[in-house]
Amino acid sequence: MKSLKFTMALLVFLLVFKNDRVGADGHLRIIGGQKAKIEDHPWIVYLYETSEGYFCGGSLINADTVITAAHCFDSYPPTHIIAGNIDRNNVRDSIEIKNHKLHDYYNNKTYDYDIAILKLAKKVTFSKKIQPIQLPKQDYEVPAGTKVTTAGWGKTEVKIMYNIKV
Question: What's the 3-state SS for 73-125?
Answer without folding.
Answer: HCCCCCCEEEECCCCCCCHHHCEEEEEEEECCCCCCCCCCCCCEEEEECCCCC
